[in-house]
Amino acid sequence: MMSHVDNVLDPLVVRAWQMLDTLTDPEIPVVTLRDMGIVREVVHRGDALEVIITPTYSGCPAMGQIEDDVRSTLQSLGVPVRVTTRLSPAWTTDWMNDAARDKLRAYGIAPPERCASAGVNVVQFAPRSAARTAADRPACPLCGSAHTTEVSHFGSTACKALYKCLSCLEPFDYFKPY
């Protein structure tokens, strides 16, 4: 059995990670699945690769597409690829890397605050922006103003809320912290 260290140094695993680094999220094409923390692990077992993925939430409609994209991307390696969805531990926005946050902001989506690492209590993010203080509201990704209000707790996807900037008057999605 291969150890974790051996697996990390395995040329097939290294090549798989390089290929997966190009695979973008089907709902947010400016971020990669690795940026988002959706691809958790690549393991070489016998003559096959296993790719572990975790959805941003258990009902994510993009998971079938993500599984197909992973298989298709790694097909040229010439080995069987098994994609395993792992729900525990549950995905958290803390798994997003800083590049994902920067790419989301540049794309016009306010990135989430950090949950565990910043000590943010997710319960405080109630569906009504009136319950949030100005310091708790996401900054507009277009003009940077914190003078924003939640329009709808659900935006273009269930993992985002729709906000409006009261300074530049532009609507924007906010990726909810989990």
Structure description:
- With 178 residues, the protein is an alpha/beta fold.
- 24% of the residues lie in helices and 20% in strands.
- The longest helix has 12 residues.
- The two termini are 35 Å apart.
- 29% of the residues are buried.
- About 8% of the residues have low confidence.
Keywords:
single chain; 7 strands; 2 domains; 3-stranded mixed sheet; 178 residues; alpha/beta; GMP Synthetase, Chain A, domain 3; 4-stranded mixed sheet
The value of Rg in angstroms is 18 Å
In terms of structural class, how would the helical and strand content be classed? alpha/beta
Main β-sheet: number of strands, strand sense, barrel status?
A: 4 strands, mixed
Helix content: 10-25%
Give, in spatial order, the strands making up the sheet with the most strands: 4-7-6-5
Q: What is the CATH superfamily label of the largest domain? A: Fe-S cluster assembly (FSCA)
DSSP helical segment count: 5
- Tell me which CATH architecture of the largest domain applies here: 2-Layer Sandwich
Please identify the oligomeric state.
single chain
CATH class division of the largest domain:
Alpha Beta
Order of helix and strand elements from N to C terminus = HHHEEHEHEEEE
Q: How many β-strands, per DSSP?
A: 7
Task: Give me the CATH fold name of the largest domain.
Answer: GMP Synthetase, Chain A, domain 3
Gross morphology: elongated
Which stretches are poorly predicted, pLDDT < 50 over at least 5 residues?
117-130
Number of domain modules: 2
Q: Give the mean pLDDT.
A: 86
